[in-house]
Specification:
The protein has 212 residues and is α/β, with parallel strands linked by helices. It is built from eight helices and ten strands. It has one domain: Aldolase class I (TIM Barrel). The chain is globular.
């Protein structure tokens, strides 16, 4: 089994991005959705990105952006990957890709079809499965997801209600390519806790070791 990658999303300050990098996170996420409590201005995100060591990826998160809006932010703060966390039309997905993470909300009635749909998109590098529309800390029944992953070749990122306490269980149930956390490492809404970030990363490493 390959190790589980880690993404810490909703980074807004130097303490959080430093903790994520030092704890071994593979990627950090900047939320470019103005209505979110984790919103960061592209100029500030670019400054923080400059603090990262080599080989740590940046992810720009958008929700139902127009192509022009996306291009405007991307010009100020280009990121390694783009995450679309809304109900974007297929045409938008194609135009904004490649190197794209497409987020979908887990629904037992629709998950199989949506996984197959995005598995066929060459622009989609990974499919993120969340328990909500994003950033709400809502988990779902991981055991219900597992049967639908058979035959899906696109890497799966697991999100939604993950914390240092439950991420190990989630990894053992789903065996995702990566896990994504935001509210689960916050001391208050929108404010990351460096110690929780470190605890989350340790829990992922521990779960991987137990699966060897």
């Amino acid at each position: 089994m390959a190790r589980t990658r880690i993404k810490i999303c909703g980074i807004r300050n130097e303490a959080a991005i430093t903790a994520a990098a030092e704890a071994g996170a593979d990627a950090v996420g900047f939320v470019f959705v103005e209505s979110s409590p984790r919103y960061i201005q592209p100029e500030e995100a670019w400054k923080l990105a400059g603090l990262l060591p080599p080989m740590v990826a940046t992810v720009g998160l958008y929700q139902n952006p127009g192509v022009d809006d996306f291009a405007e932010v991307e010009q100020v703060c280009p990121t390694t990957l783009t995450q679309l966390h809304g109900n974007e039309r297929d045409q938008i997905v194609e135009m904004i890709g490649p190197d794209l993470i497409k987020a979908i909300k887990f629904d037992p009635e629709t998950i199989a079809g949506r996984l197959r749909h995005y598995d066929e998109f060459p622009e989609v590098s990974a499919i993120l499965i969340d328990g909500s529309a994003g950033g709400e800390g809502i988990a779902f029944d991981w055991d219900q997801l597992t049967p639908h992953l058979e035959g899906i070749s696109t890497p799966i990122i697991l999100a939604g209600g993950l914390t240092p306490e439950n991420v190990g269980e989630a990894i053992k149930a789903v065996r995702p390519f990566a896990v994504d956390v935001s509210s689960g490492v916050e001391r208050e809404r929108g404010v990351k806790d460096p110690e929780l970030i470190r605890a989350f990363c340790r829990a992922v490493v521990r779960a991987d070791a137990e699966l060897l």
